[in-house]
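User: Quick sanity check before I run a bigger batch. Here is a single chain. Can you write out its predicted 3D structure?
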Amino acid sequence: SDDVATTEEQVNARHILISEILPTPTPTDVPEGDPTPEPTATATAVPEGEPTPVPTPGPRTREEALELAQELRTRIVDGGEDWMAIAAEYSDDLSNRDAGGDLGWFARGAMVAPFEEAAFALPVGEISEPISTTFGYHLIEVLERDDAREKDEATLQQERNDAFSNWRTAQVAAAKVT
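Assistant: Done. Predicted structure follows.
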């Protein structure tokens, strides 16, 4: 298991995702002669101390997503607006938008290809042009880069297991058992 490298190139990055948002399907008309159902939902007040619900953004085409991503990049890069505030308000990645889109450290192979290529090519502190993936458009900022960051224990264990399994397969194949 000495064949398994214990370090690898990694970046610590954050992103803002702007997705295409498909329109809500149009309700079907009530057949002629049936009474129109009365709406039953009434607006309820938000209890004291509860967060105000965020309105669901309306439909957004892929082109509009790109335009918004470009506009947000300009606001951050040229306008000096705060990345964290923009991420919290606009990012469609709900898993990390309140943390400024923080993705932490990751190695090659952890992200979809166009995202990974951009993240590993970006100079530290520079904000990418909008990067297109199946999720939408990403603005990426690399906060740190380490060409020899220690791998986490789970990754190392998996790589050691794989290396041993490959070695054992090769040994069995090489042994000409008759």
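The two ends are 29 Å apart (CA to CA).

User: Great, the batch can go ahead then.
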